[in-house]
Amino acid sequence: MRSPVLMTTALKLSHRLIYFTGVGICAAIVHLLIVFNLVNFLNLQPLLSNVIAFLIAFNVSYLGHKYFTFNQIQDKKQLSLPHFFLVAASAGLLNETLYYLLLRFTTLHYITALVFVLSIVAVYNYLFSRFWACR
Fold first, then answer.
1. With contact defined as beta carbons under 8 Å apart, do 53 and 42 qualify?
2. Are 55 and 45 in contact (CB under 8 A)?
3. Nearest alpha-carbon partner for 82 in 108, 62, 102
4. DSSP character for 134?
5. Which 3-state string (H, E, C) describes 95-129?
6. 55 vs 10, 27, 77, 107, CA distance in Å?
7. b/e per residue, 102-129, with b = 16+ CB within 10 A?
């Protein structure tokens, strides 16, 4: 039988992961919708649309994580905007690089490629947000 402290910690981590996933899905939907609309209605290139969408989805992600995912950390840790921005900026660079490579060297549709990239970058974001941006 596990101790109450371990069970509480596991429960908190489980809830945090659920919130992180929910916020991430919301930010990803915003990101995808913006790219889709910019490409299809303003005739922008997918890579440029991706950068614009990233800058907007960043705000959804930051506010969602600040108020939901990381708001109940017991030891008074704060979600640091500068740290979160550095994590997000590096994730944005990873996102754009992977997206470019997939668009350039595969026959994937731009939306399919973006969904794949956003999924990979989500794992990166969680790990760095959890262990570095939230200090």
1. no
2. no
3. 62
4. B
5. HHHHHHHHHHHCCCCHHHHHHHHHHHHHHHHHHHH
6. 33, 11, 25, 26
7. bbeeeeeebeebbeebbeebbeebbebb
**Cα separations (Å) of 117 from 2, 10, 62, 75, 94?**
38, 29, 19, 33, 9
Q: 84-114 pLDDT, tens per residue? A: 788 888 999 999 999 999 999 999 999 999 9
Stretch (H or E) spanning 31:
helix 4-41
Quickly list DSSP for 41-107.
Answer: HS---HHHHHHHHHHHHHHHHHHHIIIIISTT-TT---B-HHHHHHHHHHHHHHHHHHHHHHHHHS-
Question: pTM for the full model?
Answer: 0.81
pLDDT single digits (tens) 45-60: 999 999 999 999 999 9
Residue 134 tokens, joined? 């939230």
